[in-house]
TrEMBL record:
<dbReference type="InterPro" id="IPR011330">
    <property type="entry name" value="Glyco_hydro/deAcase_b/a-brl"/>
</dbReference>
<feature type="domain" description="NodB homology">
    <location>
        <begin position="36"/>
        <end position="257"/>
    </location>
</feature>
<dbReference type="InterPro" id="IPR002509">
    <property type="entry name" value="NODB_dom"/>
</dbReference>
<dbReference type="InterPro" id="IPR037950">
    <property type="entry name" value="PgdA-like"/>
</dbReference>
<dbReference type="Pfam" id="PF01522">
    <property type="entry name" value="Polysacc_deac_1"/>
</dbReference>
<protein>
    <submittedName>
        <fullName>Polysaccharide deacetylase</fullName>
    </submittedName>
</protein>
C-alpha cells in the first residue's frame, strides 16, 4: 500500500487530550454546580494533577501531544497552558464553558467562539487554528462559522479514518475524524450520576485501542486517541496509555504528530488536489 503520510510513514498517530476541568459542569448541571462541590472537585483533578502526569509521560517517551482546552479552563490555569506550550505541544480551541453546541443558537455559538479565541490570544499571544467541539456536537452552521473565524480544522466527526476537507459556503474546513471507541470517557468516566455503569477493565480497553491501532496501521489511517486528564490521569489508566505508547513504538513507520501538524499536512494535500472533499448530508431526505 502506498503511503499518504510524510516521509513514507505508514500511519499517523495523534494523542490528544480535552482538558475540560470543571467547565462543563456549569452548563450541564448548573444547579449542582451552584450547590454541590464533589463533581467540580473531581474534574479539577485534570488541570491540577492529571495534566502534569500526562506531560511527564510524553516527555519520557518523546511523544507530542495535542490539548484542546475550554478557554474558561485555560484562563483559570495559565500555568498549565504555559507548561504545555513550553514542552512544544499544541493547544486547540474547545469552547469556553464546554457548551455542547446543540444547546446554542448561531449567534451564541459565534459569541462563544470569538470569546475563546480572545482569551487564548490574551494568554498565549496567538489564536489556535485547530478546534474540537465540546461533546463532539456540531450544528449544521458550525463548519461555516469556524471557517469564517479563521479556524482551519475541526476534530469532531466520525465518518472516516483519514482527514478530509468538509465543504462550507465560506470554503473548506479540514476535518480530522475521531470516534467514541477511542475516547477514555466512554470507558472510565465515573461519577455519582452514572454509578450503575461498570468501570471498564483497563486490559480490555488496551485490547480495544491496540486492535483499532492495528487496523489504522494496516490501512494507513490517522489514529486519534481522545483522553481527559481528569479521567485517565489516574494511575491505572495512565498505565494503559504507557502500554499503548510502547506497543505503537514497536511498529516501524509511525508518524507521531499533533492535530495541528496534520492540519498543515491536510491543507498542503488539499492544495495538491490530494485530499478527499466531502459534503454534509442533506438537511432533508433526498427526493428519489
Ligand atoms: Zn471536552
Amino acid at each position: 500500500m502506498s503511503s499518504i503520510w510524510p516521509n513514507g510513514k505508514r500511519v499517523a498517530v495523534c494523542l490528544s487530550w480535552d482538558v475540560d476541568g470543571e467547565s462543563a459542569q456549569y452548563v450541564r448541571f448548573p444547579d449542582r454546580a451552584r450547590n454541590q462541590l464533589s463533581e467540580l472537585h473531581q474534574r479539577l483533578y485534570g488541570p491540577q494533577v492529571g495534566i502534569w502526569k500526562v506531560l511527564n509521560l510524553l516527555k519520557e517517551y518523546e511523544v507530542p501531544g495535542t490539548f484542546y482546552i475550554p478557554s474558561y479552563t485555560a484562563k483559570l490555569h495559565p500555568d498549565m497552558v504555559e507548561a504545555i506550550l513550553n514542552d512544544e505541544h499544541t493547544v486547540g480551541l474547545h469552547g469556553h464553558l464546554h457548551h455542547s453546541l446543540d444547546q446554542l443558537t448561531r449567534e451564541e455559538e459565534q459569541a462563544v467562539l470569538v470569546k475563546s479565541q480572545e482569551i487564548f490570544k490574551e494568554l498565549t499571544g496567538s489564536v489556535p487554528r485547530i478546534f474540537r467541539s465540546p461533546s463532539w456536537e456540531l450544528n449544521r452552521w458550525s463548519p461555516e462559522l469556524l471557517v469564517q473565524h479563521g479556524v482551519v480544522s475541526d476534530s469532531s466527526l466520525m465518518d472516516d479514518e483519514v482527514p478530509y476537507a468538509l465543504e462550507t459556503p465560506r470554503g473548506p474546513l479540514i476535518e480530522i475524524p475521531i470516534q467514541w471507541l477511542l475516547d477514555d470517557a466512554e470507558h472510565w468516566n465515573h461519577h455519582r450520576a452514572n454509578r450503575d455503569k461498570a468501570i471498564s477493565d483497563p486490559d480490555a480497553v488496551f485490547r480495544l485501542w491496540s486492535t483499532e491501532f492495528d487496523g489504522y496501521y494496516a490501512t494507513g489511517g490517522c489514529f486519534v486517541l481522545t483522553l481527559h486528564p481528569f479521567i485517565s490521569g489516574r494511575w491505572a489508566y495512565m498505565a494503559v496509555l504507557e502500554r499503548l505508547i510502547k506497543y505503537i513504538r514497536s511498529f516501524p513507520g509511525v508518524w507521531w504528530t499533533t492535530l495541528d501538524e496534520v492540519t498543515g499536512w491536510s491543507v498542503d494535500r488539499l492544495a495538491q488536489n490530494q485530499l478527499p472533499i466531502r459534503q454534509s448530508p442533506a438537511p432533508e431526505p433526498l427526493d428519489f
